[in-house]
Protein backbone atom coordinates (compact mmCIF):
# COMPACT_ATOMS: atom_id res chain seq x y z
CA UNK A 1 0.00 0.00 0.00
CA UNK A 2 2.85 2.40 0.88
CA UNK A 3 4.60 1.67 -2.40
CA UNK A 4 1.37 2.25 -4.34
CA UNK A 5 0.93 5.57 -2.53
CA UNK A 6 4.41 6.73 -3.50
CA UNK A 7 3.81 5.76 -7.11
CA UNK A 8 0.49 7.61 -7.21
CA UNK A 9 2.06 10.73 -5.71
CA UNK A 10 4.82 10.76 -8.30
CA UNK A 11 2.22 10.62 -11.08
CA UNK A 12 0.01 13.38 -9.65
CA UNK A 13 2.72 15.91 -8.76
CA UNK A 14 3.31 17.33 -12.28
CA UNK A 15 -0.41 17.64 -13.00
CA UNK A 16 -1.82 19.47 -10.00
CA UNK A 17 -2.14 23.24 -9.91
CA UNK A 18 -1.54 23.25 -6.14
CA UNK A 19 1.54 21.08 -5.80
CA UNK A 20 2.49 22.31 -2.35
CA UNK A 21 0.38 19.76 -0.54
CA UNK A 22 1.43 16.83 -2.67
CA UNK A 23 5.10 17.69 -2.29
CA UNK A 24 4.51 17.74 1.47
CA UNK A 25 2.73 14.38 1.33
CA UNK A 26 5.51 12.94 -0.80
CA UNK A 27 8.05 14.24 1.67
CA UNK A 28 6.22 12.64 4.58
CA UNK A 29 6.11 9.36 2.69
CA UNK A 30 9.81 9.56 1.95
CA UNK A 31 10.56 10.46 5.56
CA UNK A 32 8.48 7.53 6.77
CA UNK A 33 10.19 5.21 4.34
CA UNK A 34 13.60 6.35 5.53
CA UNK A 35 12.73 5.68 9.17
CA UNK A 36 11.28 2.17 8.70
CA UNK A 37 13.29 -0.95 8.08
CA UNK A 38 11.36 -1.74 4.91
CA UNK A 39 11.92 -4.88 2.84
CA UNK A 40 14.61 -4.66 0.18
CA UNK A 41 12.13 -5.43 -2.62
CA UNK A 42 9.94 -2.47 -1.63
CA UNK A 43 12.93 -0.14 -1.42
CA UNK A 44 14.13 -1.25 -4.85
CA UNK A 45 10.66 -0.67 -6.30
CA UNK A 46 10.64 2.81 -4.78
CA UNK A 47 14.08 3.32 -6.32
CA UNK A 48 12.80 2.19 -9.72
CA UNK A 49 10.05 4.80 -9.69
CA UNK A 50 12.60 7.61 -9.41
CA UNK A 51 14.76 6.06 -12.09
CA UNK A 52 12.04 6.25 -14.70
CA UNK A 53 12.65 8.79 -17.44
CA UNK A 54 12.00 11.60 -16.88
CA UNK A 55 12.74 11.68 -13.19
CA UNK A 56 9.58 12.77 -11.30
CA UNK A 57 11.39 15.64 -9.60
CA UNK A 58 12.53 16.93 -12.98
CA UNK A 59 8.93 16.98 -14.17
CA UNK A 60 7.86 18.78 -10.99
CA UNK A 61 10.53 21.45 -11.36
CA UNK A 62 9.83 22.01 -15.05
CA UNK A 63 6.08 22.42 -14.53
CA UNK A 64 6.14 24.09 -11.12
CA UNK A 65 9.40 26.00 -10.70
CA UNK A 66 7.80 28.07 -7.93
CA UNK A 67 7.68 25.06 -5.60
CA UNK A 68 11.46 24.82 -5.24
CA UNK A 69 11.55 25.90 -1.54
CA UNK A 70 9.32 22.99 -0.53
CA UNK A 71 11.27 20.69 -2.80
CA UNK A 72 14.50 21.82 -1.16
CA UNK A 73 13.06 21.28 2.30
CA UNK A 74 12.05 17.70 1.65
CA UNK A 75 15.24 16.82 -0.21
CA UNK A 76 17.11 18.05 2.84
CA UNK A 77 15.00 15.77 5.01
CA UNK A 78 15.51 12.89 2.60
CA UNK A 79 19.31 13.06 2.87
CA UNK A 80 19.29 13.75 6.61
CA UNK A 81 17.22 10.62 7.32
CA UNK A 82 18.85 8.33 4.79
CA UNK A 83 18.81 4.71 6.12
CA UNK A 84 22.13 3.20 7.06
CA UNK A 85 23.57 0.80 4.47
CA UNK A 86 21.27 2.41 1.87
CA UNK A 87 23.37 5.55 1.26
CA UNK A 88 24.50 4.51 -2.19
CA UNK A 89 20.93 3.72 -3.26
CA UNK A 90 19.63 7.04 -1.94
CA UNK A 91 22.26 8.96 -3.88
CA UNK A 92 21.54 6.89 -6.99
CA UNK A 93 17.85 7.79 -6.71
CA UNK A 94 18.66 11.50 -6.84
CA UNK A 95 21.52 11.28 -9.35
CA UNK A 96 19.39 11.98 -12.50
CA UNK A 97 17.70 14.94 -10.85
CA UNK A 98 20.96 16.42 -9.55
CA UNK A 99 22.61 15.99 -12.93
CA UNK A 100 19.67 17.74 -14.57
CA UNK A 101 19.65 20.54 -12.03
CA UNK A 102 23.38 21.34 -12.17
CA UNK A 103 24.32 20.32 -15.73
CA UNK A 104 21.22 20.77 -17.88
CA UNK A 105 22.25 22.69 -21.06
CA UNK A 106 19.65 25.45 -20.72
CA UNK A 107 20.63 26.17 -17.09
CA UNK A 108 17.42 28.07 -16.35
CA UNK A 109 17.98 31.06 -14.10
CA UNK A 110 14.74 30.25 -12.26
CA UNK A 111 16.54 27.27 -10.76
CA UNK A 112 19.65 29.18 -9.67
CA UNK A 113 18.47 29.68 -6.09
CA UNK A 114 17.62 26.00 -5.76
CA UNK A 115 21.02 25.00 -7.15
CA UNK A 116 22.96 27.14 -4.71
CA UNK A 117 20.81 26.24 -1.70
CA UNK A 118 20.85 22.53 -2.50
CA UNK A 119 24.62 22.64 -2.98
CA UNK A 120 25.04 23.84 0.60
CA UNK A 121 22.83 20.97 1.77
CA UNK A 122 24.79 18.37 -0.19
CA UNK A 123 28.17 19.66 0.96
CA UNK A 124 27.41 20.05 4.64
CA UNK A 125 29.53 17.99 6.99
CA UNK A 126 27.88 14.82 8.31
CA UNK A 127 29.24 13.22 11.45
CA UNK A 128 31.79 14.31 14.09
CA UNK A 129 34.64 16.53 12.94
CA UNK A 130 37.36 14.47 14.57
CA UNK A 131 36.75 11.53 12.27
CA UNK A 132 39.56 10.62 9.88
CA UNK A 133 37.24 9.82 6.99
CA UNK A 134 33.76 10.92 5.87
CA UNK A 135 30.67 8.83 6.51
CA UNK A 136 29.21 6.81 3.66
CA UNK A 137 26.54 9.32 2.59
CA UNK A 138 28.98 12.24 2.53
CA UNK A 139 31.43 10.12 0.57
CA UNK A 140 28.85 9.18 -2.07
CA UNK A 141 27.58 12.76 -2.39
CA UNK A 142 31.05 14.27 -2.80
CA UNK A 143 31.98 11.68 -5.40
CA UNK A 144 28.74 12.40 -7.27
CA UNK A 145 29.47 16.13 -7.32
CA UNK A 146 33.02 15.48 -8.52
CA UNK A 147 31.60 13.38 -11.34
CA UNK A 148 29.28 16.23 -12.35
CA UNK A 149 32.08 18.78 -12.87
CA UNK A 150 32.96 17.84 -16.50
CA UNK A 151 29.31 18.30 -17.54
CA UNK A 152 28.89 21.87 -16.31
CA UNK A 153 27.76 24.48 -18.84
CA UNK A 154 30.11 27.48 -19.04
CA UNK A 155 28.80 29.49 -21.98
CA UNK A 156 27.76 32.79 -20.41
CA UNK A 157 28.51 34.98 -17.43
CA UNK A 158 25.84 33.58 -15.11
CA UNK A 159 26.84 29.98 -15.81
CA UNK A 160 30.52 30.75 -15.24
CA UNK A 161 29.75 32.55 -11.98
CA UNK A 162 27.68 29.63 -10.68
CA UNK A 163 30.32 27.12 -11.73
CA UNK A 164 33.00 29.20 -10.02
CA UNK A 165 31.09 29.10 -6.73
CA UNK A 166 30.39 25.38 -7.15
CA UNK A 167 34.07 24.54 -7.70
CA UNK A 168 35.19 26.64 -4.75
CA UNK A 169 32.66 25.04 -2.38
CA UNK A 170 33.42 21.54 -3.61
CA UNK A 171 37.17 22.08 -3.24
CA UNK A 172 36.74 23.33 0.32
CA UNK A 173 34.58 20.31 1.18
CA UNK A 174 37.16 17.88 -0.16
CA UNK A 175 39.79 19.56 1.97
CA UNK A 176 38.03 18.31 5.11
CA UNK A 177 39.56 14.88 4.41
CA UNK A 178 42.57 15.54 2.14
CA UNK A 179 44.06 12.10 2.67
CA UNK A 180 40.86 10.42 1.48
CA UNK A 181 40.33 12.70 -1.52
CA UNK A 182 43.92 12.92 -2.85
CA UNK A 183 43.05 11.90 -6.40
CA UNK A 184 39.90 14.02 -6.50
CA UNK A 185 41.75 17.08 -5.18
CA UNK A 186 44.46 16.71 -7.82
CA UNK A 187 41.90 16.28 -10.59
CA UNK A 188 39.79 19.15 -9.32
CA UNK A 189 42.88 21.38 -9.18
CA UNK A 190 43.49 20.61 -12.84
CA UNK A 191 39.84 21.44 -13.53
CA UNK A 192 40.31 24.76 -11.72
CA UNK A 193 43.35 25.53 -13.85
CA UNK A 194 41.42 24.80 -17.04
CA UNK A 195 38.45 26.82 -15.81
CA UNK A 196 40.62 29.86 -15.06
CA UNK A 197 40.90 30.85 -18.72
CA UNK A 198 37.13 30.72 -19.25
CA UNK A 199 36.54 32.64 -16.03
CA UNK A 200 39.10 35.24 -17.09
CA UNK A 201 37.45 35.75 -20.47
CA UNK A 202 33.89 36.14 -19.15
CA UNK A 203 34.34 37.63 -15.68
CA UNK A 204 37.81 39.17 -15.92
CA UNK A 205 38.83 37.35 -12.75
CA UNK A 206 40.61 34.10 -11.95
CA UNK A 207 42.72 35.01 -8.93
CA UNK A 208 40.30 33.47 -6.41
CA UNK A 209 40.76 30.02 -7.94
CA UNK A 210 44.53 30.44 -8.16
CA UNK A 211 44.70 31.58 -4.53
CA UNK A 212 42.66 28.54 -3.50
CA UNK A 213 45.19 26.25 -5.15
CA UNK A 214 48.15 28.22 -3.82
CA UNK A 215 46.91 28.07 -0.22
CA UNK A 216 46.55 24.29 -0.36
CA UNK A 217 49.55 23.40 -2.51
CA UNK A 218 51.10 21.38 0.31
CA UNK A 219 48.20 18.93 0.12
CA UNK A 220 48.59 18.39 -3.64
CA UNK A 221 51.98 16.73 -3.82
CA UNK A 222 51.63 13.04 -4.51
CA UNK A 223 49.99 12.37 -7.86
CA UNK A 224 49.69 16.02 -8.88
CA UNK A 225 50.54 16.75 -12.56
CA UNK A 226 53.19 19.40 -11.84
CA UNK A 227 54.44 19.72 -15.43
CA UNK A 228 50.94 20.23 -16.78
CA UNK A 229 50.24 22.79 -14.06
CA UNK A 230 53.43 24.69 -14.93
CA UNK A 231 52.41 24.80 -18.59
CA UNK A 232 48.92 25.95 -17.65
CA UNK A 233 50.28 28.75 -15.50
CA UNK A 234 52.58 29.83 -18.32
CA UNK A 235 49.63 30.05 -20.71
CA UNK A 236 47.61 31.97 -18.12
CA UNK A 237 50.37 34.51 -17.48
CA UNK A 238 50.46 35.43 -21.17
CA UNK A 239 46.72 36.17 -21.17
CA UNK A 240 45.97 37.67 -17.77
CA UNK A 241 46.07 41.41 -17.04
CA UNK A 242 48.67 42.73 -14.62
CA UNK A 243 46.20 42.82 -11.73
CA UNK A 244 45.70 39.05 -11.92
CA UNK A 245 49.32 37.94 -12.31
CA UNK A 246 50.65 38.02 -8.74
CA UNK A 247 48.68 34.97 -7.48
CA UNK A 248 49.76 33.01 -10.56
CA UNK A 249 53.42 33.88 -9.96
CA UNK A 250 53.13 32.88 -6.31
CA UNK A 251 51.59 29.54 -7.24
CA UNK A 252 54.30 28.90 -9.85
CA UNK A 253 57.04 29.65 -7.32
CA UNK A 254 55.42 27.36 -4.76
CA UNK A 255 55.13 24.53 -7.29
CA UNK A 256 58.77 24.83 -8.34
CA UNK A 257 59.84 24.95 -4.70
CA UNK A 258 58.21 21.61 -3.88
CA UNK A 259 60.70 18.72 -3.48
CA UNK A 260 58.47 16.59 -5.70
CA UNK A 261 59.12 18.90 -8.67
CA UNK A 262 62.92 18.95 -8.45
CA UNK A 263 63.20 16.07 -10.90
CA UNK A 264 60.94 17.60 -13.54
CA UNK A 265 62.48 21.05 -13.81
CA UNK A 266 62.90 20.99 -17.59
CA UNK A 267 59.28 22.05 -17.93
CA UNK A 268 60.05 25.08 -15.75
CA UNK A 269 61.80 26.72 -18.72
CA UNK A 270 58.33 27.15 -20.20
CA UNK A 271 57.85 29.97 -17.66
CA UNK A 272 60.81 32.03 -18.92
CA UNK A 273 58.84 33.93 -21.56
CA UNK A 274 55.92 34.88 -19.25
CA UNK A 275 58.34 35.99 -16.52
CA UNK A 276 60.40 38.08 -18.95
CA UNK A 277 57.23 39.62 -20.35
CA UNK A 278 56.37 40.86 -16.87
CA UNK A 279 59.89 42.17 -16.29
CA UNK A 280 59.79 44.12 -19.55
CA UNK A 281 56.69 46.06 -18.47
CA UNK A 282 57.17 49.72 -17.61
CA UNK A 283 57.60 51.14 -14.14
CA UNK A 284 54.53 53.33 -14.65
CA UNK A 285 52.37 50.27 -15.21
CA UNK A 286 53.79 48.68 -12.06
CA UNK A 287 52.97 51.77 -9.99
CA UNK A 288 49.40 51.84 -11.25
CA UNK A 289 48.69 48.14 -10.67
CA UNK A 290 50.44 47.43 -7.35
CA UNK A 291 48.15 48.47 -4.51
CA UNK A 292 48.11 45.54 -2.11
CA UNK A 293 51.70 45.80 -0.89
CA UNK A 294 54.04 42.88 -0.53
CA UNK A 295 56.33 41.68 -3.27
CA UNK A 296 55.75 43.34 -6.62
CA UNK A 297 55.12 41.46 -9.83
CA UNK A 298 58.63 42.31 -10.97
CA UNK A 299 60.15 40.89 -7.79
CA UNK A 300 58.08 37.72 -8.05
CA UNK A 301 59.09 37.34 -11.71
CA UNK A 302 62.76 37.74 -10.75
CA UNK A 303 62.37 35.10 -8.04
CA UNK A 304 60.73 32.78 -10.54
CA UNK A 305 63.56 33.24 -13.05
CA UNK A 306 66.16 32.56 -10.38
CA UNK A 307 64.49 29.27 -9.47
CA UNK A 308 64.22 28.26 -13.12
CA UNK A 309 67.90 28.95 -13.78
CA UNK A 310 69.14 27.26 -10.62
CA UNK A 311 67.40 23.97 -11.18
CA UNK A 312 68.49 21.35 -13.68
CA UNK A 313 67.02 18.06 -14.79
CA UNK A 314 68.66 15.52 -12.50
CA UNK A 315 66.79 12.39 -13.49
CA UNK A 316 63.70 11.47 -15.41
CA UNK A 317 60.55 10.92 -13.44
CA UNK A 318 57.48 9.09 -14.62
CA UNK A 319 55.00 11.86 -15.50
CA UNK A 320 51.52 11.86 -14.02
CA UNK A 321 48.76 11.53 -16.56
CA UNK A 322 45.04 11.01 -16.08
CA UNK A 323 43.91 8.66 -18.82
CA UNK A 324 40.23 8.99 -17.89
CA UNK A 325 40.21 12.68 -17.08
CA UNK A 326 37.24 14.58 -18.52
CA UNK A 327 37.90 18.35 -18.49
CA UNK A 328 35.32 21.00 -17.80
CA UNK A 329 36.52 23.15 -20.75
CA UNK A 330 38.32 22.64 -24.05
CA UNK A 331 41.35 24.50 -22.64
CA UNK A 332 42.63 21.15 -21.46
CA UNK A 333 43.15 20.14 -25.10
CA UNK A 334 45.88 22.70 -25.75
CA UNK A 335 47.28 22.11 -22.25
CA UNK A 336 47.59 18.36 -22.76
CA UNK A 337 48.95 18.79 -26.30
CA UNK A 338 51.64 21.20 -25.08
CA UNK A 339 52.61 18.78 -22.32
CA UNK A 340 52.93 15.91 -24.79
CA UNK A 341 54.97 17.96 -27.27
CA UNK A 342 57.21 19.20 -24.48
CA UNK A 343 58.06 15.61 -23.60
CA UNK A 344 58.95 14.86 -27.22
CA UNK A 345 61.06 18.00 -27.69
CA UNK A 346 63.67 16.67 -25.31
CA UNK A 347 65.01 14.70 -28.28
CA UNK A 348 66.97 16.62 -30.93
CA UNK A 349 65.33 14.92 -33.90
CA UNK A 350 61.85 15.70 -32.59
CA UNK A 351 62.65 19.42 -32.43
CA UNK A 352 63.32 19.77 -36.16
CA UNK A 353 60.30 17.62 -36.99
CA UNK A 354 57.99 19.73 -34.85
CA UNK A 355 59.33 22.98 -36.32
CA UNK A 356 58.79 21.59 -39.83
CA UNK A 357 55.21 20.65 -39.03
CA UNK A 358 54.53 24.13 -37.63
CA UNK A 359 56.02 25.76 -40.72
CA UNK A 360 53.87 23.61 -43.00
CA UNK A 361 50.73 24.99 -41.33
CA UNK A 362 51.67 28.67 -41.63
CA UNK A 363 50.40 29.22 -45.21
CA UNK A 364 46.86 28.22 -44.21
CA UNK A 365 46.59 29.96 -40.85
CA UNK A 366 46.34 33.55 -39.68
CA UNK A 367 46.41 32.88 -35.94
CA UNK A 368 49.07 30.76 -34.29
CA UNK A 369 48.00 29.23 -30.93
CA UNK A 370 49.57 30.73 -27.84
CA UNK A 371 51.02 27.38 -26.77
CA UNK A 372 53.09 27.29 -30.00
CA UNK A 373 54.79 30.55 -29.01
CA UNK A 374 55.30 29.16 -25.52
CA UNK A 375 57.04 26.08 -26.92
CA UNK A 376 59.04 28.24 -29.33
CA UNK A 377 60.32 30.35 -26.43
CA UNK A 378 61.17 27.16 -24.56
CA UNK A 379 63.29 26.00 -27.51
CA UNK A 380 65.00 29.40 -27.78
CA UNK A 381 66.16 29.05 -24.19
CA UNK A 382 66.94 25.34 -24.30
CA UNK A 383 68.59 24.76 -27.69
CA UNK A 384 72.10 25.53 -28.95
CA UNK A 385 74.10 25.02 -32.14
CA UNK A 386 72.32 24.13 -35.38
CA UNK A 387 69.07 23.46 -33.57
CA UNK A 388 69.02 27.04 -32.30
CA UNK A 389 69.54 28.37 -35.83
CA UNK A 390 66.52 26.35 -36.94
CA UNK A 391 64.44 27.73 -34.08
CA UNK A 392 65.44 31.32 -34.97
CA UNK A 393 64.47 30.78 -38.61
CA UNK A 394 61.14 29.27 -37.57
CA UNK A 395 60.48 32.18 -35.21
CA UNK A 396 60.88 34.64 -38.09
CA UNK A 397 58.44 32.70 -40.28
CA UNK A 398 55.89 32.30 -37.49
CA UNK A 399 56.09 36.04 -36.78
CA UNK A 400 55.12 36.77 -40.38
CA UNK A 401 52.02 34.59 -40.01
CA UNK A 402 50.97 35.94 -36.60
CA UNK A 403 52.69 38.82 -34.83
CA UNK A 404 50.48 38.91 -31.73
CA UNK A 405 53.01 37.22 -29.42
CA UNK A 406 56.19 38.53 -31.08
CA UNK A 407 56.69 41.29 -28.46
CA UNK A 408 56.98 38.52 -25.86
CA UNK A 409 59.70 36.75 -27.86
CA UNK A 410 62.01 39.79 -27.88
CA UNK A 411 62.91 39.56 -24.15
CA UNK A 412 63.57 35.83 -24.62
CA UNK A 413 66.15 36.60 -27.31
CA UNK A 414 67.80 39.17 -25.04
CA UNK A 415 67.77 36.61 -22.23
CA UNK A 416 69.47 34.11 -24.53
CA UNK A 417 72.15 36.67 -25.41
CA UNK A 418 73.04 36.85 -21.74
CA UNK A 419 74.09 33.20 -21.75
CA UNK A 420 77.44 31.82 -22.98
CA UNK A 421 77.15 31.42 -26.76
CA UNK A 422 79.31 30.99 -29.82
CA UNK A 423 79.91 34.23 -31.79
CA UNK A 424 77.98 32.90 -34.79
CA UNK A 425 74.94 32.16 -32.66
CA UNK A 426 75.15 35.62 -31.07
CA UNK A 427 75.13 37.19 -34.52
CA UNK A 428 72.14 35.09 -35.61
CA UNK A 429 70.19 36.08 -32.52
CA UNK A 430 71.02 39.76 -32.98
CA UNK A 431 69.85 39.81 -36.59
CA UNK A 432 66.69 37.93 -35.64
CA UNK A 433 65.62 40.96 -33.60
CA UNK A 434 64.94 43.27 -36.59
CA UNK A 435 63.67 40.32 -38.63
CA UNK A 436 60.78 40.01 -36.16
CA UNK A 437 59.66 43.59 -36.86
CA UNK A 438 56.92 42.44 -39.21
CA UNK A 439 54.16 44.56 -37.66
CA UNK A 440 53.91 47.89 -35.89
CA UNK A 441 52.95 46.14 -32.61
CA UNK A 442 56.45 44.64 -32.51
CA UNK A 443 58.35 47.88 -33.08
CA UNK A 444 58.29 49.29 -29.56
CA UNK A 445 59.70 46.15 -27.96
CA UNK A 446 62.43 45.78 -30.60
CA UNK A 447 63.38 49.45 -30.27
CA UNK A 448 63.70 49.03 -26.53
CA UNK A 449 65.99 46.04 -27.02
CA UNK A 450 68.15 47.94 -29.52
CA UNK A 451 68.38 50.92 -27.19
CA UNK A 452 69.68 48.62 -24.47
CA UNK A 453 72.30 47.25 -26.86
CA UNK A 454 73.21 50.72 -28.09
CA UNK A 455 73.89 51.95 -24.57
CA UNK A 456 77.11 49.90 -24.67
CA UNK A 457 79.75 51.79 -26.73
CA UNK A 458 81.31 48.63 -28.14
CA UNK A 459 77.92 47.53 -29.50
CA UNK A 460 76.88 50.83 -31.08
CA UNK A 461 78.16 49.85 -34.52
CA UNK A 462 76.24 46.58 -34.69
CA UNK A 463 73.20 48.29 -33.15
CA UNK A 464 73.21 50.83 -35.98
CA UNK A 465 73.21 48.01 -38.51
CA UNK A 466 70.36 46.29 -36.66
CA UNK A 467 68.42 49.55 -36.59
CA UNK A 468 68.92 49.89 -40.34
CA UNK A 469 67.57 46.38 -40.87
CA UNK A 470 64.54 47.25 -38.76
CA UNK A 471 64.02 50.47 -40.73
CA UNK A 472 63.92 48.45 -43.95
CA UNK A 473 60.83 46.71 -42.55
CA UNK A 474 59.30 49.62 -40.63
CA UNK A 475 59.90 53.12 -42.00
CA UNK A 476 58.34 54.59 -38.85
CA UNK A 477 61.66 54.10 -37.00
CA UNK A 478 63.54 56.50 -39.35
CA UNK A 479 63.86 59.26 -36.69
CA UNK A 480 65.37 56.72 -34.31
CA UNK A 481 67.75 55.60 -37.06
CA UNK A 482 68.87 59.19 -37.59
CA UNK A 483 69.53 59.50 -33.85
CA UNK A 484 71.69 56.38 -33.88
CA UNK A 485 73.63 57.70 -36.88
CA UNK A 486 74.27 60.94 -35.05
CA UNK A 487 75.52 58.97 -32.03
CA UNK A 488 78.11 57.25 -34.22
CA UNK A 489 79.70 60.65 -34.94
CA UNK A 490 80.36 61.32 -31.27
CA UNK A 491 83.97 60.65 -30.40
CA UNK A 492 84.65 59.04 -27.06
CA UNK A 493 87.88 58.60 -25.16
CA UNK A 494 86.55 55.45 -23.51
CA UNK A 495 86.46 53.41 -26.73
CA UNK A 496 89.34 52.07 -28.78
CA UNK A 497 90.24 53.11 -32.31
CA UNK A 498 88.92 49.81 -33.63
CA UNK A 499 85.53 50.45 -32.06
CA UNK A 500 85.42 53.97 -33.49
CA UNK A 501 86.36 52.62 -36.90
CA UNK A 502 83.53 50.07 -36.72
CA UNK A 503 81.09 52.90 -36.04
CA UNK A 504 82.32 54.82 -39.12
CA UNK A 505 81.96 51.78 -41.37
CA UNK A 506 78.52 50.99 -39.92
CA UNK A 507 77.34 54.54 -40.57
CA UNK A 508 78.60 54.44 -44.16
CA UNK A 509 76.86 51.10 -44.75
CA UNK A 510 73.61 52.50 -43.33
CA UNK A 511 73.86 55.54 -45.63
CA UNK A 512 74.25 53.20 -48.60
CA UNK A 513 71.24 51.09 -47.54
CA UNK A 514 69.02 54.15 -47.05
CA UNK A 515 69.91 55.45 -50.50
CA UNK A 516 69.23 52.07 -52.08
CA UNK A 517 66.02 51.19 -50.25
CA UNK A 518 64.12 54.50 -50.32
CA UNK A 519 66.01 57.00 -52.49
CA UNK A 520 62.99 59.21 -53.20
CA UNK A 521 61.90 59.40 -49.55
CA UNK A 522 65.14 59.88 -47.65
CA UNK A 523 67.87 60.11 -50.30
CA UNK A 524 68.18 63.88 -50.18
CA UNK A 525 68.73 63.70 -46.39
CA UNK A 526 71.85 61.60 -46.96
CA UNK A 527 73.75 64.08 -49.19
CA UNK A 528 75.29 65.93 -46.25
CA UNK A 529 76.30 62.66 -44.58
CA UNK A 530 77.85 61.41 -47.83
CA UNK A 531 79.88 64.60 -48.18
CA UNK A 532 81.00 64.32 -44.53
CA UNK A 533 82.28 60.76 -44.95
CA UNK A 534 84.12 61.61 -48.18
CA UNK A 535 85.79 64.59 -46.53
CA UNK A 536 86.87 62.61 -43.45
CA UNK A 537 87.93 59.34 -45.11
CA UNK A 538 90.77 60.37 -47.40
CA UNK A 539 93.60 58.14 -46.15
CA UNK A 540 94.61 54.94 -47.96
CA UNK A 541 93.24 52.74 -45.17
CA UNK A 542 89.92 54.62 -45.09
CA UNK A 543 88.68 53.60 -48.52
CA UNK A 544 85.90 51.29 -47.29
CA UNK A 545 83.55 53.95 -45.83
CA UNK A 546 84.15 56.24 -48.81
CA UNK A 547 83.35 53.44 -51.25
CA UNK A 548 80.16 52.56 -49.33
CA UNK A 549 78.78 56.11 -49.47
CA UNK A 550 79.70 56.33 -53.17
CA UNK A 551 77.57 53.24 -53.72
CA UNK A 552 74.74 55.13 -52.05
CA UNK A 553 75.40 58.09 -54.35
CA UNK A 554 75.27 55.66 -57.26
CA UNK A 555 71.75 54.63 -56.17
CA UNK A 556 70.63 58.27 -55.93
CA UNK A 557 71.93 59.06 -59.40
CA UNK A 558 70.31 55.93 -60.82
CA UNK A 559 66.97 56.95 -59.30
CA UNK A 560 67.57 60.49 -60.67
CA UNK A 561 67.19 61.98 -57.21
CA UNK A 562 70.36 63.97 -57.92
CA UNK A 563 71.93 64.99 -61.23
CA UNK A 564 75.04 62.98 -62.03
CA UNK A 565 76.68 65.93 -63.81
CA UNK A 566 76.17 68.30 -60.87
CA UNK A 567 77.26 65.57 -58.48
CA UNK A 568 80.51 64.97 -60.31
CA UNK A 569 81.20 68.67 -60.64
CA UNK A 570 80.99 68.90 -56.84
CA UNK A 571 83.08 65.80 -56.17
CA UNK A 572 85.68 65.96 -58.91
CA UNK A 573 88.09 68.29 -57.06
CA UNK A 574 88.45 65.64 -54.34
CA UNK A 575 88.06 62.38 -56.26
CA UNK A 576 89.56 63.05 -59.69
CA UNK A 577 93.06 62.46 -58.31
CA UNK A 578 92.11 59.61 -55.94
CA UNK A 579 94.20 56.51 -56.66
CA UNK A 580 92.73 54.08 -54.13
CA UNK A 581 91.65 50.94 -56.04
CA UNK A 582 88.35 50.55 -54.20
CA UNK A 583 87.41 54.17 -54.89
CA UNK A 584 88.34 53.86 -58.57
CA UNK A 585 86.20 50.74 -58.90
CA UNK A 586 83.23 52.50 -57.32
CA UNK A 587 83.69 55.59 -59.53
CA UNK A 588 83.73 53.35 -62.60
CA UNK A 589 80.38 51.94 -61.54
CA UNK A 590 79.09 55.47 -61.07
CA UNK A 591 80.26 56.56 -64.54
CA UNK A 592 78.59 53.51 -66.06
CA UNK A 593 75.26 55.20 -65.39
CA UNK A 594 75.95 57.99 -67.86
CA UNK A 595 74.72 56.15 -71.01
CA UNK A 596 71.45 55.22 -69.31
CA UNK A 597 70.88 58.86 -68.35
CA UNK A 598 71.39 60.20 -71.89
CA UNK A 599 69.98 63.64 -72.67
CA UNK A 600 70.17 65.41 -76.06
CA UNK A 601 72.12 68.49 -74.96
CA UNK A 602 75.59 69.98 -75.16
CA UNK A 603 75.96 69.60 -71.40
CA UNK A 604 75.49 65.87 -71.74
CA UNK A 605 78.21 65.60 -74.40
CA UNK A 606 80.61 67.59 -72.21
CA UNK A 607 79.81 65.34 -69.25
CA UNK A 608 80.46 62.18 -71.24
CA UNK A 609 83.80 63.54 -72.47
CA UNK A 610 84.85 64.57 -68.96
CA UNK A 611 83.96 61.15 -67.60
CA UNK A 612 86.02 59.37 -70.22
CA UNK A 613 88.98 61.62 -69.54
CA UNK A 614 88.75 60.96 -65.82
CA UNK A 615 88.37 57.22 -66.32
CA UNK A 616 91.42 56.90 -68.62
CA UNK A 617 93.51 59.17 -66.40
CA UNK A 618 92.77 56.94 -63.42
CA UNK A 619 93.71 53.80 -65.30
How would you explain this protein's 3D organization?
This protein has 32 helices and no strands. It is 68% helix and 0% strand. The longest helix is centred in the first third of the chain and has 22 residues, at 182-203. It has 619 residues and is mainly alpha-helical.
Using brief descriptors, characterize the structure shown.
mainly alpha; elongated; 619 residues; 0% strand; 32 helices; single chain
What's the total helix number?
32
The profile of the biggest β sheet is: none
Q: Which spans of ≥5 residues are poorly predicted at pLDDT below 50? A: 1-7, 24-46
Rg (CA only): 37 Å
Rounded to the nearest angstrom, the distance between the terminal CA atoms is 126 Å
Mean pLDDT value: 82
Q: Indicate the percent of residues in helices.
A: 55-70%
Shape: elongated
The total strand number stands at 0
Name the beta content range: under 5%
Q: Which class of secondary structure composition applies to the elements?
A: mainly alpha
GO biological process, one term: regulation of post-transcriptional gene silencing
Protein name: Focadhesin
InterPro entries: FOCAD/RST1_DUF3730, Focadhesin/RST1
Pfam family, one: DUF3730
Amino acid sequence: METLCLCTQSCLLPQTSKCLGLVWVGGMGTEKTSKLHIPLSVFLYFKTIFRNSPHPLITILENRPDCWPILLQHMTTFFQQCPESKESACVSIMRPFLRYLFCEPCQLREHAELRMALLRVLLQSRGPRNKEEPNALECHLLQLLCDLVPYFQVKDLSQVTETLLFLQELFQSLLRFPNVWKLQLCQLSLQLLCFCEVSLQLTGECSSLICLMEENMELLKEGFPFEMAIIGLGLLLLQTPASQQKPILKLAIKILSCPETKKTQTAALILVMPALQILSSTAVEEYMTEKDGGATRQQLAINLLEIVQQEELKEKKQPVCYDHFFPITSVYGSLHTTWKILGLLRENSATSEWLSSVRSMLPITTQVPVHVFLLLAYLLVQENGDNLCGVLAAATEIAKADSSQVPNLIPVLMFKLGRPLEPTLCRNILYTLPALGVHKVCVAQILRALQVLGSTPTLQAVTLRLMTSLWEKQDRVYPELQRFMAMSDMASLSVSKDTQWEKVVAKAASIRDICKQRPYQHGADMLAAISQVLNECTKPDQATPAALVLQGLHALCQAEVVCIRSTWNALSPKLSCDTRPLILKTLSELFSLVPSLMVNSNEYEVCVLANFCTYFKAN
